[in-house]
Structures are given as structure tokens and as C-alpha cells.
Design a protein that fits this description.
The chain is built from seven helices and nine strands; from the N terminus they run E-H-H-E-E-E-H-E-H-E-H-E-H-E-E-H. By secondary structure, the chain is of the alpha/beta class. Helix 4 links the parallel strand 5 and strand 6. Helix 3 packs parallel to helix 5.
Length: 219
Amino acid sequence: MRFDIITIFPNFFKNFLSESLLARAQKNKIIKINVHNLRKWTDDRHNTVDDKPFGGGVGMVLKVEPIYKAIKGIKLKYKIKKLKPKTRVILFSPRGKVFSQNSAKKYSKLDQLILICGRYEGVDERVAKYIADELISIGDYVLSGGEVPAMAVIETISRLIPGVVGKKESAEKFDHAQYTRPEIFEKNGRKLRVPKVLLSGDHKKIAEWRKKHAKTSPC
């Protein structure tokens, strides 16, 4: 699968993409992640990607033209390599549908996901209406841009692609309560013990306990 990230801060992704599972998955050619600097598609000497909003207001808005050119160029380049790829263009927006594990499953079946990372006061609404296929939010809070959401989406989807995560059962695991040594930990004179069932060796009871104390899927 191929991820194409459009951003004005490409350096944000350097460490994220060069560590752990994602680094290995790229090295093994299971996934390909490309980070594109939006300024590459500007047409003035200052590489301007934003402008003042019509009607007035605080801050600047990302322009529609460079985003359109970026997506058109990225799609064309990949289409040459792969006949009729299954591609979706995602714009991160607080008005978007909340991203979930079910969303990740759906996107993991694609060939290409193009992620538009907004900045400043937002993105020209024509991108949302006529260029992006979907608007996605990762939660009900305010971020400075779409880079953090892009990282969350890429990691969640990548885990579902065969070969990225070593153990299949770990790919979609929701955490249950976990304990390790020491068996007894003292805090302010109080002995904090590991639940007896986890020391019992009874795998059926342990499985039942873990299920009871697991976070269930929000999907």
C-alpha cells in the first residue's frame, strides 16, 4: 500500500517514519510512504501556499490551487505504475467523520491513500467540496495541523496490512490490563499485588480475566 502525505512541514515525519514497525515495513517494501512538500506545487518565487480569507478573519488559509496540482500530480505518477489504482483523498478536518478501527479496515484495502494536512486557519473549502473524497477527524479537540492525525491514521492502517506486525493477533489487539515482575510492589507501605488468577497457570481463567479487563473495540 502507498501513503502520500501533503504537508508544508515535511520534516515533521522524519523520525516517525524511520523508526520501529513503519521503518521495517518500508524497508521490506510492504508499504511505501511519501512525504510531499506542498510548496513544490506553487507558482511564485515565494512558494506561497496561503492567503487571507475572503470576508475577513484572523489568520491565513491554505490555497486550493497548489493542493489541486499536488493531488493531480501524485495520482498521475502512481497511475502510470499501477493500472486503475484504488485511491482515496483524505482531508483532515474537525468537521470530518471520526476515524475508527472500522475506518482503518476499510482504508487498508486500498492501493493508495493521499492525506492532506491542513495548517493555519484552515483550507479553502473548495478542497473539501470538490477535491477530497472524505473529511476525517481523529477527535474532538484542536490541533495546529493535520500532521499528527496523518501519523495516527498511517500507523493504525499499516498495522492491518499483512506482514507489518509480526504476530497476527497483535495487529488489532485492544489492550487489557497487564502486569509483570515484581509480583508484589510496595508503595507507601502498601503492598500492590498481581492478581492471583494471572499466577494460577489456568489459561482458560486467565483468558476470561483478560477479556473482562480489556478495552473493547469502539467500532
